[in-house]
Amino acid sequence: MSGLTRRGVLAAGGGTLAITVLGAGARAAVAVPAGGGSARPLPLSAVRLRPSDYATAVEVNRQYLHRLSPDRLLHNFRKYAGLEPKAEIYGGWESDTIAGHTLGHYLSALVLTWQQTGDAEMRR
Description:
Layout: H1 6-11, E1 16-23, E2 26-33, E3 40-41, H2 53-67, H3 70-73, H4 75-80, H5 101-117, H6 120-123
Antiparallel strand pairs: 1-2, 2-3
Helix pairs in contact: 2-5
């Protein structure tokens, strides 16, 4: 880590010190309160990936999420709520054994992608 030590970080004074940890081509940021204390993770919205395989993976996931239809994922939700579904249900698990399961993953992915990229459509 290019000469950076725990003691050096803890001895640093004046505000919060952000550390970038390098390893296997990845970068991760951790905020360390000056004068000691526990390290705490930064929110995803405070970190942006530089061009890398990881940034490419985030972009591929973002594009995939744009292609999914919320109305198809909400088919059973609307049906069981006594409402008319707006679109056909997705096949596979959604129309069989664990219908609705994918919706939870989809919602989590939207939030994480919005925080990672700032894509307003993910938030909407």
